[in-house]
Amino acid sequence: MGDRARVRAVPASARGDGCDRGSAARRARPGDRADLGGEQSAALLAELRRALLGRFGTSDEQRLDMSLRRARLVVPVRFHVVHSGSRGRVPASVVRRQVSTLNAAYGGRRGGADTGVRFRLASADWTNASDWFNDPQEYEGAMKKRLRRGGRGTLNVFTAAVGTDVLGFSTFPQWYRKHPRLDGVVIDYRALPKNADGPFDRGYTAVHEIGHWLGLLHTFQGGCVPPGDGVADTPYEAEPAEGCPTYRDTCAQRGRDPVHNFMDYGHDTCMREFTAGQGRRIRAAWAAYRSGRRGHRHADPAARRADRGVDLGTRAPGEVRSVGGSR
After folding, report:
1. What does each C-alpha distance from 249 to 119, 172, 222, 233 come to in angstroms?
2. Entry pTM
3. Which CATH number applies to 2-215+278-320?
4. For position 301, what pLDDT does the model report?
5. Residue 139 and residue 308: Cα distance in Å, rounded?
6. How many CB atoms lie within 10 A of CB 148?
């Protein structure tokens, strides 16, 4: 993603997706945790197939989707604002705006397919910790150990000063079993919607990183070499998009490059869609890794409260200010 290549970060022990939005283009580069090698991405896809086969007797995502899909998938979100004094201390209104942006993107309201995923804000808290804020990758373990709440089906989002080149990082659902305390998504506070000027000011960094958390790979994964991202209706592309190209076709396989897909690296003004296949992949990965043991849609008890909304009213400020969620 252009100036802020979206780099996804994963635990130090299980480096995951880091989206590098480099200076002029989001080119995959060393340190981008989401820039997986061919063997790594193939291993993630193979693991998903094994998990689906073992749990449901089939790895056919379309067949599985037809048998399992019922109500929308509601994901409880626990939002952690890490700041250093006033720097990075975004207000509750920006938190709410980011969740609304997630729902619009995953609901197909920007174009493309409705993935069937919705997000409900379960809680938000503010933590004044300069070390965590200024170097969230270095202090990832300590930060998440202290702040992370909920189980495998709870999305924990952390905001801090991730960087100007690397705007965010995430874990994949396949990693939860071995690294549950590191599960979650970290976003640069300047990439939140309307929180700063620039090409990444619409909140789509979070959309992109959460795509990884839900099981999606980059659309340019593996370039023109199969299986790519493993999703049939996202055409192959040789490399990440830069800026917002009007037309690009970099691979011999059928279809133009998916430069408007949220899992590419374009500027926020360029990104607007998920595909139906990506929606099926998300629901399959959720069924395999994030649903409750009995198939419950809410793995976090707070999700039911989140469905009723969260009160982000004011409270006395402190080192850690918790708003909403369990009390």
Report:
1. 34, 28, 15, 15
2. 0.84
3. 3.40.390
4. 43
5. 33
6. 17
Q: How many CB atoms lie within 10 A of CB 135?
A: 15
Least confident of 16-30, 51-65, 141-155, 180-194: 16-30
Enter the tokens of residue 221.
């994964």
Name the β-bridge partners of 273.
261
- Domain coordinates in residue numbering, the chain: 2-215+278-320
Comparing 75-84, 127-136, 211-220, 290-299, which segment has the lowest mean pLDDT?
Answer: 290-299
Active site residues: 209
Residue 219, CA distances (Å) to 234, 290, 327 in order? 7, 22, 41
Q: What is the DSSP string of 47-86?
A: HHHHHHHHHHS---HHHHHHHH--SPEEEEEEEEEEEBTT
Predicted local confidence at residue 19, as pLDDT: 58
What is the model's pLDDT at position 34? 66
Determine the Cα–Cα distance for residues 216 and 155; give it in Å rounded to an integer. 15
pLDDT at 30: 39
Q: What is the mean pLDDT of the chain?
A: 82
The more confident residue out of 327 and 262 is 262
* Helix ranges (DSSP H) in 72-201: 92-106, 130-134, 140-147
Mean pLDDT value across residues 127-144:
96
The one-letter amino acid at 36: L
Nearest to 262 by CA among 303, 222, 321, 213: 213
Collapsing DSSP states into helix, strand and coil, what is residue 121? strand
Quick one: how many helices (H) and strands (E) in the chain?
8, 7
